[in-house]
Amino acid sequence: METKGDKIRALIVDDELHARENLKFLIEESSPEIDVVGTADGVPTAERIFHELKPDLVFLDIRMPSGAEGFDLLEKLEGESFQVVFVTAFKDYAIRAFERRALHYVLKPIDETDLRESVERIMVARDNSENLNSQENLKNLKEEIEYNKEPERITIHHAKGIRIIEISDLDYLESSGNCTILHFKDGDQYLDTRTLKVYEALLPDYFNRTHRSYMVNLKEVREILHGDDQSVILKSGKSIPVSRERKKELIEAIKGLA
Questions:
Q1: What residues make up the domain containing 241?
Q2: Which of 147, 175, 204 is the last residue of a domain?
Q3: Which of 117, 147, 177 is the last residue of a domain?
């Protein structure tokens, strides 16, 4: 494995030649910290090259022909030390799955800025000696993507590591500049550097954006108040404002939980 300051040795795995060449070009253009040492068009080739070259990082397409080959490769490499960047054309729930587990990913078609951001996250993870590729983490990711399972947890990076949060423990979320304050049912709070907009994509459907500055756990809503100061009252007693343009969506979302 590389030491801090060394180039990160990378392997690209994708069944499409053009996709492999394009990603290699973008890495060379935007990320001098990365040295692409090999490419592979499927699991057998990737496994062989991995054991020959021992890369530190694998850019892995998880929608190769069988639909599961990317995960098959990870299972074969169990016990090896490396980081993964998932390359995917998935959107919506799959993106939420990656974000919840603090896993690295880029979307097809690949944007150079997004790729650069992913590489920077890899550098932070490397410097913090984080290992996000645990078999349990990857197994849960595979199940969530294949079956679109409702998540139970999210993960949050902080200066000393990663905090795991039970989604059901959240009461509401509050925007604070470019950050988000997570408010828990027990009264605890936690400041995360991700925006409220990111949390809209992360959290399941029973969380609703009632206002530009707030999201609430609909399972914790006790009542909705109408009038000039329309709001929702949570079981905790907290009053959360509801903007006029979001009220209809809120009511429909609550009815959908019944």
A1: 166-257
A2: 147
A3: 147
Does residue 157 fall inside a structural domain?
Answer: no
Phi-psi region of 79 (alpha: psi -120 to 50; beta: other; left: phi over 0): left
Query: Which run of H or E residues covers position 118?
Result: helix 112-127
DSSP output for 5-43? TSPEEEEEE-S-HHHHHHHHHHHHHH-TTEEEEEEESSH
Overall pTM surpassing 0.70 (yes/no): no
Q: Token pair of 241, please?
A: 């404002």
For 14-68, what is each residue's pLDDT tens digit?
A: 988 888 999 999 999 999 999 999 999 988 999 999 999 999 999 998 766 544 5
The answer to whether residues 137 and 179 belong to one domain is no
CA angle 201-204-210, nearest 5°? 75
**How many structural domains does the chain have?**
2
Give the pLDDT confidence of 175-227 residue by residue, as tens digits: 998 899 999 999 999 999 888 888 887 787 789 999 999 999 999 999 999 88
Q: Take residue 173 and report the two structure tokens written for it.
A: 């979320």
